[in-house]
Write a structure and sequence with these properties.
The complex is a heterodimer of chains A (429) and B (261). Chain A has 13 helices and 13 strands. In chain A, α3 runs antiparallel to α4, α6 packs antiparallel against α7 and α9 (269-276) crosses α11. Chain A is of the alpha+beta class. The radius of gyration of chain A is 21 Å and the shape is globular. Chain A has a four-stranded antiparallel sheet. Chain A has one domain: Cytochrome-c3 Hydrogenase, chain B (Orthogonal Bundle). In chain B, strands 2-1-3-4-5 form a five-stranded parallel sheet. The radius of gyration of chain B is 19 Å and the shape is globular. Classes of the chains: A alpha+beta (429), B alpha/beta (261). Chains A and B meet through α1 and α6 of A and α1, α4 and α7 of B. The complex binds iron/sulfur cluster (SF4) (3 copies).
Chain lengths: 429, 261
């Protein structure tokens, strides 16, 4: 039994970079618990000032290679809202389809390559390839399809080329869409196997009630646009995002922490599920049932399970979107022009890790002000609060068990890909 | 025939200020070329594994150097590695990170962090070649997967990879793309290094020069293209501030090199 625990991890997690975990337990009492971002700040907001509005999505996709499409889409929506542009129906459909490519790519990486090895008792995906090659091949197949989808719609997932203010500069052919559709249909068997795999895994038993925040729409499980919704009640237009996020600068982090009503909140797949579960595709609802995911689930480890459910949703919805696009046919439209070259606008999307906001001020076509609030920044305070509640329940465990449990907790939030490898070193005094 | 384990070159991946998109591209490239995994031993790769080895011959470095404390880390990698490879535009050119070099640093910090600005250490973003010698650069934002695989194969054969040093236009025209100037857009193709399959023009957008400028850019030809379309050099200069600020501000006397000796 450990009464003194000191965890100090350097350069391990990445939240637009690197983060540290610091946990100190002295005589069984938790003295310090921080999840800190020490990455050199990226200064994207300052970099946008003085740039023509057309460049914003190309610059901000470089905030994160994993969420490149998410940043680009959010950026375009902010610019379009600022300049009075309503995208065409075709653009809306193509953007949604493209977005599912990113959700799939990112979730598959997380649920298969980063989380599953923990439960299957192997250190990483590399030994997993030896012990369970079919699992890894399945993951690679899905990732490849996700990548090919983005490639057909926007040129490449990291970093999208054809996405532009008011529309697209390139269009997938109907043959490409038909080919993707056939592959998505075949993917259903792989999705079923993924659900089965997760049915066999037991999530750690840890509940802590918190507030969940996600975008919401009346008629669909929202990923692009919507209204900000909370499990504590309350709806805010995206323009009021600042009243929800309440950013503060904490000295130990170069990512700003956020809290709603003075409390920490959680964003991401579990938040989306808790708020929008009734708008999931029926097959995804079935998957949720099979995985014992019921709203409102307050175990943060179930964020990964919610991602599995969203993979199922994304595959089904992609098929539906492709059908809609094929039915109406693809028209090579010119992007819609701004109605004004000055204005302010907010864009919001549910990127894989949760709600993302971009806000721009534009004058005569030049960006004069910008603000980006990333999902992991919003989760930081909640991760710290979870750790504070979780660590005391672990003190009767062995050194390895505590280390693994803390790693798994942070990993469940999917803060960013590299957070998931070699997370914490626990030192026992 | 299997290469004996003992002679497998050890390779390691490192990241500095970056979006990690180049490392993700590496993961995808390796998934498509599993055979590479049997001829090298990856001893460090935060993106994909938890083990960390400090004994390596080839170091791939992603990201720009953006603070003084990055320098000792870079020098330690240089010390250990026989071959240092700059992976992507951030490491090769300074890339997107260098946009902020145009604004006074204090303004940039204060805009994002207000009064707390002093808490965060930073200085103008630079390519890693501004700090250490670089043997090979794989250009692009992100890198091109095919070029990455080719570079690794050449390094394993003991050969010096040479990225193309002719203008993108040549590649673009051979792919029969419609020139984006005809669609009313500006493109850096006449002076940018080829090798990305002209992906931006192919998808309807002008080249932003993420692979860097060729060693003998023909600015006259560039000017002729612009004249022809009723544009002037200012449009091109504005475009070079996206990935090439470090080069165009002449912050480095060495100019853009770092792709070979
Ligand atoms: S070069 Fe581009 S893709 Fe590569 S790390 Fe830098 S920003 Fe990301
Ligand atoms: S200017 Fe650009 S689009 Fe035109 S041929 Fe050259 S590379 Fe292609
Ligand atoms: S076309 Fe230009 S900007 Fe696009 S990838 Fe190639 S070099 Fe980079």
């Amino acid at each position: 039994m450990a009464t003194n625990v000191s965890v100090d991890v350097h350069h391990v997690t990445r939240v637009e970079g690197h983060g540290n975990i610091v946990v100190d337990v002295v005589d069984g009492q938790l003295e310090r618990c921080e999840f800190a971002i020490v990455e050199t700040p990226r200064f994207f907001e300052a970099m946008l000032r003085g740039r023509p509005y057309q460049e914003a999505s190309h610059i901000t996709s470089r905030i994160c290679g994993i969420c490149a499409v998410g940043h680009a889409t959010t950026s375009l929506r902010a610019t379009e809202n600022a300049l009075g542009i309503s995208p065409s129906q075709q653009t809306v459909l193509l953007r949604k389809l493209n977005f599912f490519g990113e959700i799939l790519d990112s979730h598959v990486l997380h649920v298969y390559m980063l989380v599953a090895p923990d439960f299957l008792g192997v250190g990483s995906v590399i030994p997993l390839a030896r012990t369970a090659p079919e699992v890894v091949l399945r993951a690679l197949r899905m990732k490849k399809l996700a990548g090919d989808l983005c490639k057909a719609v926007c040129g490449r997932h990291t970093h999208p080329v054809a996405m532009t203010v008011g529309g697209f500069t390139h269009f997938p052919t109907e043959a490409e869409l038909r080919d993707l559709r056939a592959r998505f249909v075949n993917m259903r068997a792989d999705v079923d196997s993924l659900v089965e795999l997760y049915q066999g895994l037991t999530m750690p038993d840890f509940e802590r009630d918190t507030e969940f925040i996600a975008l919401s729409k009346a008629d669909e499980y929202a990923f692009i646009d919507g209204t900000i919704a909370s499990t504590d009640g309350g709806l805010w237009p995206i323009e009021d995002y600042k009243s929800v996020t309440n950013e503060t600068i904490v000295p130990h982090s170069s990512a700003k922490h956020t809290s709603n009503a003075g409390q920490s909140y959680m964003v991401g797949a579990l938040a989306r599920f808790n708020i929008n579960h009734d708008r999931l595709h029926p097959r995804a609802k079935k998957a949720a049932e099979a995985l014992k995911l019921k709203p409102k689930r307050t175990n943060p480890f179930f964020n990964t399970v919610a991602q599995v459910v969203e993979i199922c949703h994304a595959v089904e919805e992609s098929i539906i979107l492709i059908d809609k696009l094929l039915e109406r046919g693809i028209t090579p439209e010119e992007p819609i022009e701004p109605t004004s070259l000055s204005g302010e606008g907010v864009g919001a999307c549910e990127v894989p890790r949760g709600i993302l906001f971009h806000r721009y001020e534009i004058e005569d076509g030049i960006i004069t002000g910008a603000d980006c609030v990333i999902p992991t920044g919003q989760n930081l305070a909640n991760i710290e609060n979870d750790m504070r509640a979780f660590v005391p329940t672990l003190l009767d465990q062995t050194e390895e068990e505590i280390t693994l449990s803390l790693e798994m907790l942070v990993r469940a939030y999917d803060p960013c890909i590299s957070c998931s490898t070699h997370l914490v070193d626990v030192n026992f005094k | 025939m299997e290469t004996p384990v003992a002679v497998k070159p050890k390779i390691a991946f490192f990241d500095f200020t970056s979006c990690e998109g180049c490392q993700l591209t590496v993961v995808d490239s390796l998934a498509d070329h599993i055979e590479l995994l049997s001829v090298v031993e990856i001893v460090q790769f935060r993106e994909a594994m938890s083990e960390r080895g400090e004994d390596y011959q080839i170091a791939f470095i992603e990201g720009s150097c953006t603070r003084p404390s990055d320098e000792p880390r870079l020098k330690a990698i240089r010390e250990q590695a026989d071959i240092v490879v700059a992976l992507g535009a951030c490491a090769h050119l300074g890339g997107i990170n260098s946009i902020r070099n145009r604004q006074p640093l204090q303004d940039v910090r204060a805009y994002v962090y207000g009064e707390e600005a002093e808490l965060f250490e930073t200085y103008p973003a630079r390519p890693i070649s501004a700090v250490i010698d670089v043997d090979v650069s794989i250009p692009g934002c992100p890198i091109n997967p095919r070029e990455f695989v080719q570079t690794v194969k050449m390094l394993l054969q003991g050969r010096q990879p040479e990225p193309p040093d002719y203008p993108l236009c040549i590649e673009c025209k051979s792919l029969e793309n419609v020139c984006v100037y005809l669609r009313g857009k500006t493109c850096l193709g006449p002076i940018t290094r080829a090798g990305c399959d002209a992906i931006c023009p192919a998808y309807g957008d002008g080249c932003e020069g993420c692979r860097g400028i060729i060693s003998n850019p023909n600015y006259e030809a560039m000017k002729a293209v612009l004249d022809w379309h009723g544009l002037d050099m200012a449009e091109v200069e504005a475009k070079t501030t996206m990935f090439l600020t470090y080069q165009t501000m002449n912050m480095d006397e060495k100019k853009e090199n770092g792709h070979g000796h």
